[in-house]
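As a next step, we paired sequence with structure tokens, yielding the entry below.
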Amino acid sequence: MRQKMFMDESQTDEKSLDTNVRVGEILSSARNKKKKDIEKIAEKLRIRPQYLTALENSEYDIFPGRIYALGFLKSYAEFLGLDAEDLLARYKEEIKGLSAKPMVMPMPEHQIILPSPKILLWTLGVCAVVWMAWYFLSFSEEKEPAIPPIVTQENPLVEAQIAEAVPEAKPEASASEKKKDEAKSTEKKAAAAKKNRVQIRAKEELWFEILNDDTLVVSKVLKKGETYDVPAGSADMTLKTGNAGGMEVIVDGQVLKPLGPVGSIRSDISLDPEKLKKR
């Protein structure tokens, strides 16, 4: 019995070291060994189950872009306790010679379904009929005769009461008061600008996620030149990206040094402005 267990473990180690073994086989073997359900893993990692299944089957065409495949593969490998860097290197070897698939943003599962052209035409027809009916009914009604204004003789007592009821117009603010108001407005604008201290700018197309503890704040793809303002309260947030060298992190208007080389994957990066400045 012990000899059989030893043989199984040695076979598993040889399989993990064999460069001919595909990434999907290593993932599937590790998951089955841990007796984990792929649906529960997908829920834990916030990744659709079909993407994890595609990784195990080495079906990379299903992904909207290679950046997604790299990010999902790293998360899946780390969850299973595998060497993520080794699997990423194997993946890059497997896709050599394959034409790069253009980046396509995945549609959300709760996408809005537009009504059919027939329903739109029918709705427009009903609106037109209702409007025409209202138009003809409005102009067919007899106009009420205009009531002539009531002319009264001047009464000093009434004029005095009206003068008391209507407040006097306040004089215009002085120049010093206007300057104070402008200074207050400038301070408010500056305070509002400080709420979003951290920005992410894409030097090339990249994908990233922002988490607040275990809660997903945003998962986004930026095209070259686009900028994303990190929400206020970023001190408790972390960043995960599939292309660390393809982004610029800006804190209080200052561009920081790159988080890593182009194409490298980084995760658990604190978005605390002060910690980012000290990196």
In short: Residues 20 and 124 are 63 Å apart (CA to CA). The first strand starts at residue 198 and ends at 202. The domain at 2-94 is CATH 1.10.260.40 (434 Repressor (Amino-terminal Domain)).
